[in-house]
Design goal:
The protein is built from 19 helices and no strands. By secondary structure, the chain is mainly α. The longest helix is centred in the first third of the chain and has 36 residues.
Amino acid sequence: MAASSESGPASTATETGQPKLHRNLSVWEAIGISLALMAPSMAASINPQGTATTVGRAVPIAFALAFVGVLLVAYTFVRLTQRFHHSGSVYGFVGATLGPRAGVISGWALTGTYTFYAVVTSMAGGRFAANLLDAIGVWNNPPTWSGFLLGVIGMVLVWFLAITPARGGTRVLLAAEAVTVLLILIVIVIVFAKLAGHSAPNKLGLDWSVFSLPSGTPLSTIFLGVVFGFLSFAGFEAASTLGEETRRPRRDIPRAILGVAIFGGIYFFVVTAVEVMGFGTSAKGVTAFINSTSLVGDLGTSYVASWLGTIITAGAMISAFGCALASTVGASRLAYAMSRDGVLPARLSRVSPRRRTPTTSAAAVVLAVYVIIAFTWFVLGGDPFTLFLESGTIGTLILLVVYILATIGMVRLVFFSGDSRVRRWELVIPVLGIIVLGYTLYRNVWPLPTGVNWWGPSVAIAWLVAGIAWVLARPAATRRAGELLTRAEGLATSDAAEPGRLSGQRA
């Protein structure tokens, strides 16, 4: 089938007698997956605290810089998804533009990112659930390990939803995230109004110093805080994993990716600014901000009523487990694509004839999450919040590498393949993206942290090295993966030089 067909390529799974993924998703359901994985309600309740530990009151600046970086990366995904709609997203993009070895490495990397994000969000959900049970009197003063237990229980529901047809799963995600985001925006409006009206607690008011770095803070320090901004945006491109399940992928997937990125940028900038103002920009206020167990929940309690804080905590819990579901769906679709193309064990490419979803790969992802939780809980003796932080670091550092590979591949395809439909000046956009991503990665990895913070960059590096080693050790399997990839896409090796087949309309 032609590469430009909206009905999708002839799947390798079909050629082997396996049922094909069901193409039934609309643009709004594609947005649902990206929003759920980005989890703006959960991210607004936790991630700004990490930024505040490095830049103090200037949290909105770090998130604004992250927004710029995300828009630069979004350009890459928009250009690529206008050409390809492989269910493995970056795996397919990089494989078709940089070759099978780079494609396999990126697929392996992104599978790791989504898997570790499933750990991140299951721990966040477990922690919020424990706080909620305490607040309503069901489980008073739950022990620290309660976050592990409740996270494990939540992943059972995640697994069940992950193997249901994607239409039902994405509708649940979109509805849950929409409700929790609405609740957060209501609280933010109330807090802003009280700050502006000089009726806020502790005589606080609007303080525009949140848009400036504290005195004596080096400008480069902002890039340490930016990593938490990227963590908050992570997953905005998740709709690209549903390319084989979306009715009009070349139109709807780019719209979903760009729309979610723009919404996230405005949302995080406004919310983080009001959050910091709501706690106060003094040293005492920033300390309270960093130590909060639920940023928006605490603001709801302080500025409105305790019951609203409890509702916000419940919303954050739903958002967290919704994000865990989106992470599991993303990882399982990538594992399915890589298995189908001969990289991972063939059993992971099995599609349920009844559900028409990759049930085996979904189960494998959930099992991996359980292994990581058990290792941290019983072997290392860690706590849920530390696992949340370190898994978030691992996933984000790997993700930055994937974004760089995708950007390089897009540059090669769009600007060095004889394609005259794209303006040459647009090359500046991906180049700036590589610079921002590269420096952020460098600033957060070197020098290598010590203590418990060592786990984040070390595991990320180990995961990437393992993928590279596998590719070098099995060149034949890598070549086969490349052949199956191009066949599934309806492409040939020479297609990258044929702008008439691969190019979209001039943007």
